[in-house]
Known about the structure:
With 248 residues, the chain is α+β, with helices and mostly antiparallel strands. 35% of the residues lie in helices and 28% in strands. The protein binds zinc ion (ZN).
Amino acid sequence: xxxxxxxxxxxxxxxxxxxxxxRLLTPTRGILTAFAFGGSRSRRRFCGCxxxxxxxxxxxxxxxxxAYLQLEESTLLSGYPRLKANLPxxxxxxxxxxxxxxxxxxxDTSRAVYDLxxxxxxxxDDGGEDQDFWPLFFRAAVAFESGFAPDFKSCHxxxxxxxxxxxxxxxxxxxxxxxxxxxPSTGLALPASRGTMRLLSHLQATGPxxxxxxxxxSEIRSECYEIVDKYVQxxxxxxxxERGFHRE
Length: 248
Ligand SMILES: [Zn+2]
């Protein structure tokens, strides 16, 4: 089987002298690993574009016994040069990529997560340098794209609007806001100010292009971090430590 596909290179490794393996995020096939024989020296077939955070158009085919995928050729579509020239931005992009690799991406959500990842890299490449919230917002958006649609606007039981709830909480397991009266007696409930709930609703309704203009005060950022972190941990089974993300 041979196919041509777009792909964002997440990671590249070398084996033997000139051969490489490449991990790619694709719009229709999830995350793939393919072998590029002669990848580190064939400029004719790979144009020197086999590097992490390069968007490429590639041709691949399965080996005869279908045991592995072989990269035949690739062309560079975008290398995000301004992002790569800026260390803080590069660090944030690398964090998003690490999260994606730990996350088990299904083929059905492949397109949405691919589009979100490209939009995040484009937004970072074209501004966004004065904010450090990108990895956090990216994780939240990946969780939203993966079929989890938390309700940040009203109490899950009585339906009271967030604007009318004094001291609202966010119930992690339910993925919804609760007033103090309807708050479940068990499960993790985190403080959820109206500002934080408005921000998370905004993230759900918009994309990375719109996030560039956001200014988030530190209290809302910490609350948002706590909610997204616990939500991703509970629903996606991923926990962050100093080395990256790992599955629980
Ligand atoms: Zn209620």
